[in-house]
Amino acid sequence: MLRVGALVPIAWATVLLFVPYALLLVQSFWRLDNGVLTPGFTLDNYRRLVGTSLYPRTILYSAETALWVTGAALILAYPLAYLLAFKVRRHRDLLYLAVIIPLWVSYVVRAYAWKIILGQQGILNGLLLSLGLIHEPLSVLLYSRWAVVVALTHIYTPFALMPIFAVLEAIPPSLREASQDLYADRWRTFLHVTLPLSLPGVLAGGTFAFVLSMGDFLAPQLLGGNDSALMVSNLVWSLFGVAYNWPLGAAVAVVMLGLTLALLALTGALERGGRSR
Amino acid sequence: MPDPLLRLVDLSKRFGDVAALDHISLDIAGGEFLTVLGASGSGKTTTLRLIAGFEPPTTGQILMDGADIAPLPPYRRDVNTVFQQYALFPHLTVRDNVGYGLRMRRVARPEIAQRVKDALALVQLGDLGARKPRQLSGGQQQRVALARALVNRPRLLLLDEPLGALDLKLRRAMQLELKHLQTRVGITFVYVTHDQEEALTMSDRIALMRNGRIEQLGTPDEIYHRPQTRYVADFIGDTNLLKGKVLASAGREATLQLGGAVVRAPLGVGGALAAGADAWLSVRPERLSVGPRTGTGTAAAGNEAGVGAGRNALEGVVADLVFVGAGTKVFVALADGTRVMVHRPADDPLAPGAPVTVVWPVEAGVLLRD
Questions:
Q1: Which tens digit of pLDDT belongs to each residue from A160-199?
Q2: What distance in Å separates the CA atoms of residue A249 and residue A226, rounded to the nearest whole number?
Q3: Which of A180, A192, A277 sits opposite B73 (nearest CB)?
Q4: pLDDT interval class at A275 (50, 70, 90)
Q5: Mean pLDDT of chain A
Q6: Mutate to test the interface with A, among B89, B106, B146, B158 (most CBs of A within 10 A)
Q7: Residue B86 falls in which region: left (phi positive, over 0), alpha (psi -120 to 50) or beta
Q8: For residue range B51-66, what is the model confidence (pLDDT) as tens digits?
Q9: Residues 6 or more apart from A70 whose CB is under 8 A from it?
Q10: Which of the residues A35, A251, B43, B240 could staple to B212 if both were Cys, CB 3.0 to 4.6 A apart?
Q11: How distant is the Cα of B15 from the closest Cα of chain A, in angstroms?
Q12: How many cross-chain Cβ pairs, A to B, lie less than 8 Å apart?
């Protein structure tokens, strides 16, 4: 028997989550008749999605971009999480807060900040010019895939850091002492004890960074220039907003949702496997 | 002591304003089973962590075979530790846990396999090598922790309350097993515990710690029968601590006014006591006997008879009787209200309120300064 308390979150998820996704799924089987949205059941959208190289290529390109972001975020987050968990004693909460605070700054502001830094008249160009390293402003900094990777890395590193920090902090100090007691120096203790025990956090943090940046829409829009069209979210956006092809856009979105859920299921299984082994 | 394996020289450790360890010196012989006993906060675990190398000392030296190991990190010390909560690596199998130290020392693989097998056999876990620590019971985990340390054949094994997490019955069995194991492998054990019974059962010597200092160092027998301070007498086992006033101190004996009578006691390590000074007499409950008061003699008369026979006697009434299975604890209230506990076999019953005489041989008393 369901209690009333359980009904509220169920209703919430139904109205705000399942119904929209169900509508998306239903619309992905509709078709466009002379520019008019026509209900029905056709697999044409999915056939086109698979058959046109643009769509798989876009998904792969997005995944590749997201992989770069994930790698960069993990490389930045892990040492920082390690320092916070083991080396910093005083002001640790304050420093952790400093890592988290950017999450409270509007996403758009953070994306725009990179425009200011990377732009032709931007801070980075100004710095390079004043150092005499370049003689005219570089235009390649902004409006490229790398600008997107840099901005997304900045935005999603805290998401990668939080689970890693949580896992590291939960490792009993006695385990690292036991390792040192058994002749392992600091580096080998890290390699044989700390790192293996922190992998679930790395997996969780990496999944966050990957899923969030793969589905990101605004940073490519603001910083990606021509490359931005190759990110899958921007493709979905233009299918809905520009081409007015809602069924095809819905089909792409459904495929992305499926891929994301599959990825989450996979990493979830990996984490559980790691625990029960 | 000829050439101690380990010497702690003027060792201290301060955490901020707190002296966790306050200038202790201690020699530990090779092959010895030394127990560091104390209440929590007495400095016993700090002592262990300094020897293992997890904390640097504030002052002093840790000499192993004469060389100071205090500046060395833990991984360069020929010392292994059995941790309080075992600290087994959860991601490794039992076999890999036990072989960890050998792998880190780059011992050849076939030798590691053989030594791990032998170590697991030694602690009777031969067939559990493929398990993960969480699949083992507490007692089994404890054995793995022991095997993981012993497999390295260290000069010195440190054990930090290794039996603390086990239930009483298993703990008793493991106490004997550990002691036998230590004798068999011949490794020096430094064993930290707060359990005085455990210390008495297992140790060659006990260092009883209090407030970062060694209150008394000695064999279990010395610590139990010849405590040097009131704290030691009270910490180890049950005892009666009776306060009295010194009447005279001559030769190897003192007489004191105590519980409304005059009693005699051998002088302890402190030597003669000034007449009129306060002193404490410690007598173990099992050294006392209690019986119905005989005749109509006054306390003084009874006392004189006792003194004459090399025994002390005090008169009182039975206040409480507590049945403890193997015998009875009799609480006797003396004339001045002091309560004395006597262990006696459960034979002829005494009724509460009955007038009794408590008697003990003079040499059973231990005289302690105030």
A1: 999 999 999 999 999 999 999 999 999 999 999 999 999 9
A2: 20
A3: A180
A4: low
A5: 88
A6: B89
A7: left
A8: 999 999 999 999 999 9
A9: A160, A206, A209, A210, A213
A10: B43
A11: 15
A12: 64
| Distance between CA atoms of residues A16 and B78, nearest Å | 63
Q: Given an 8 Å threshold on Cβ–Cβ distance, is B100 in contact with A174?
A: no
Nearest residue of chain B to residue A195 (CA atoms): B91
- Is the CB of A182 less than 8 angstroms away from the CB of B100? yes
pLDDT tens for each residue of A94-117: 888 888 888 888 888 888 888 888
pLDDT interval class at A228 (50, 70, 90): low
Burial B207-238 (b: 16+ CB within 10 A, else e): bbbbebbbbbbbebeebbbbbbbbbbbebbbe
Contact (CB<8Å) B53/A180? yes
Give which of A221, A260, A258 is closest to A238, Cα–Cα: A221
Residue type, A105: V
pLDDT of residue A67 exceeding 70, the answer is: yes
Cross-strand pairs, B13: B21
* Whether complex ipTM tops 0.90: no
- Please name which of A169, A202, A204 lies closest in space to residue A75, comparing C-alpha atoms: A202
B291: β partners? B357
CB B291 within 8 A of CB B236: no
Least Cα separation, residue A189 to chain B (angstroms): 10
Tokens of A16: 């705000």
Classify residue A50 as left (phi > 0), alpha (psi -120 to 50) or beta.
alpha
Q: Is the Cβ–Cβ distance between B299 and B271 less than 8 Å?
A: no
Residues contacting residue A59 through CB under 8 Å, at least 6 positions apart: A232, A255, A256, A259
At residue B108, the pLDDT reads 96
Q: Is the model's pLDDT at A205 over the cut of 50?
A: yes
Tell me how far apart the alpha carbons of residues B155 and B64 are, in angstroms, rounded to a whole number.
9
